[in-house]
Amino acid sequence: MFLTKECDYAVRVVRCLSSGERKPVKSVCEKEHIPLPFAYKILKKLENAKIVQSYRGSTGGYQLNKDPSTITLLQIVTAVDDSLLLNECLQGDYACENDLEGSPCMVHRELIRVQDILLLALKEKTMEEMAV
Question: Are 77 and 84 in contact (CB under 8 A)?
Fold first, then answer.
C-alpha cells in the first residue's frame, strides 16, 4: 500500500495546525477524528522532522514549526513513513526474478515511472493549499 493510515493522519494533523495556533492534542484529535494514542506517535515523528514543535505546561500543545506554504505533502508523508514505495520491487536491494541480463523487468520500469509521478505530485502540493 502506498499511503498508510498513519500518513493520512499526519497530513490531517498538519492541516489542523495550519492556522498557526498552538493547539492541544485532544482538540486536534477531535477535529480530525484521530485516535489520541495514534496522534502522539505521529506528532513525535513530525516533531523529529521539525515540522511541528511541542510546548509543555498548562498552555502547552503543538504548533507548526514552519509556514504551511513551505510544507509539502511529501515532507509530511516521509516524516512518518520513510519507505514510500508502490511495491517491494522498488527497494534498492530487491532482486527481480524477471530481470534479464542488461534489461530490467518492464513491470519494474513502469512502477518506477508511476512512483516518480506520485512523488512529484506530493512534492508540489503544500499544506497552505490544503488548509481548511
Answer: yes
